[in-house]
Amino acid sequence: MARLILWGNAISPGIAIGPLRLKQSIRLLEKRRIVAEDVAKEEEALVRAAEQVRSALGAAVREVPETLQEYREIMLSQMELARDPKIIDSARARIRRRKICATWALNETMEELCNLFSGIEDPYLQDRAQDIKAICFRIADALTGASHEKDTENKSILASYELSPADVMELGPNGILGLLTVEGGPTSHTAILARGMRVPAIAGMTDLLAQAREGETVIVDALRGCALLAPDGDDLEKYQEFRENYLAFENQTKTSATLSSATKDGIELVVGANLENLSELGTLKKSGARGIGLYRTEYAYLGGALPDEKALVEEYSTVLAKTAPEKVIFRTLDVGADKLLLPNIIPNEPNPALGLRGIRFCLKYRDIFRTQLRAVLRASRNSNAALMLPMISGKAEIAETREIISSVKEELKAEGLAYAKDLPLGIMIETPSAVLASDILAGECDFFSIGTNDLVHYLLAIDRNNRHVAYLNEPLHPAIIRSLKTVIDAAHAKNITASVCGELASDPCGIVVLLGLGIDELSAAQRFVPAIKHILRKLDAGLCADLVNEILTLHDVAEVKKLLEAAMVNFLGPELPYHSSSFVLRKSHE
Ligand code: PEP
Ligand code: MG
What we know:
Elements: E1 4-7, E2 9-12, E3 15-22, H1 39-63, H2 69-81, H3 88-98, H4 102-117, H5 123-144, E4 156-160, H6 165-171, E5 176-181, H7 189-196, E6 201-203, H8 208-211, E7 217-221, E8 226-229, H9 233-255, E9 270-275, E10 292-296, H10 309-323, E11 328-331, H11 359-364, H12 366-379, E12 385-389, H13 395-414, E13 425-429, H14 432-436, H15 438-441, E14 447-450, H16 452-459, H17 478-493, E15 497-500, H18 508-517, E16 521-525, H19 529-538, H20 541-551, H21 557-572
Parallel strand pairs: 3-4, 4-5, 5-6, 9-10, 9-16, 10-11, 11-12, 12-13, 13-14, 14-15, 15-16
Antiparallel strand pairs: 1-8, 2-6, 3-7, 7-8
The chain binds phosphoenolpyruvate and magnesium ion.
């Protein structure tokens, strides 16, 4: 086969070279109707298969080395899914109701649950659907007797339609050189595992299965997000050397994760982590993050059910205990638009992105909001915590929230329950109105956190789901950079801090611009924290400020990119190829 480059999204950075192994990708679905007498037998077979998967995963968990705590927690959560009533009981009900075999019922249940999340732009929720799929496929394999033999003999690059953490586990940390998948995203558990095991991985490779050949050599470049199939001698030589240099660089970054982030001229930003759920807590301290700059609280509301106060208090207390003495910023429930978490409650809206989302939802559904506020206040009573409101568009929303918080505190006091008396209250800056009114809003809250993921879309008026305007997604657009300046300056004028917790905070170019604008804190997924701190140490805040002043005079995003690209060569020098920026650096080391 001729040399071919396929592009996708790098979900675990690194370079791997080795023979390709195709993992079973076409699962034959058994669709068999059954008679009433066989219903009990099919139900039993399903329960048995799920138990078999649980015990196989249990055995696998026991083999996980202590050093891979995160890995263990992911396996445990997969074990839980294997007995989740939303999967098992629904499939059993289908067997009874529709008189169909267990595999068919399981498949329908899986599709229904995954449909809940499909079409949702939020990669986090899409990836939870991947977890459900992975466990259902595995139970289906147990039902049909498909083998899951461990093969650690031959180290290979695994290519598949999708991979479950269990699939990865079967090969063991030593069996896989790299991963390539058609499906999956950066927050999938497989991606988390791959990063934990330092296995380079790329997802979203549309043509992979049509082009890949078993046994053929492949290069996985999970820095740029491409795979070279049938590479030539030159490619191999170049990439072998690049890989060694990258590994040395990565080791240096990791071992320096807990060092200060101070720039060359002594400016020290707080670098925190964005967390989605408890399973990520195990590695927080090692990542070098100073606390949690964004705790997304949506996970507990997945699947449409409302969590009770007790469960939330437990969750938040665990987060606080494991992060102490550093701070945890709890963002209140951010549903609506692309995060369609409570489909039974959220009304049908003509344009959900401009509808009842974030704080608007919470102010309408007060009971849900109050339950969450009670839980945060109770869990934070002796801890370093803060509360943050998403999608604020004006002063009245903050005032209304403050009133609700006061009333919740009165309630807790009357019940004799302990709670946090002075929880700082911050807001996310994600709407154009919040930018333009940032001087007003800064007087109403204790801190700003700029949600650049949403802000970019709202400022540039791009529908996230409309691929025809995806080309306009330019976080370095002059309008964005000016907005960031307006917000940061407004915060400082009122002596409050400004942070960024959107993707821009982990992009090398974004870091340069934000440092130059005088940002106080950055928060990003913990896998990015060591690299962010490393980059900060290489920068000079004064020079970045000069650069930003020049950028602010430019009229066009192409000019901004050109200037930044040249500056990045100076700032990062020979290590530039080891950093991937989604904006300007993608092909610069070809
Ligand atoms: C953002 O919008 O930048 C943000 C951090 O919030 P989320 O990605 O959860 O919408
Ligand atoms: Mg947001």
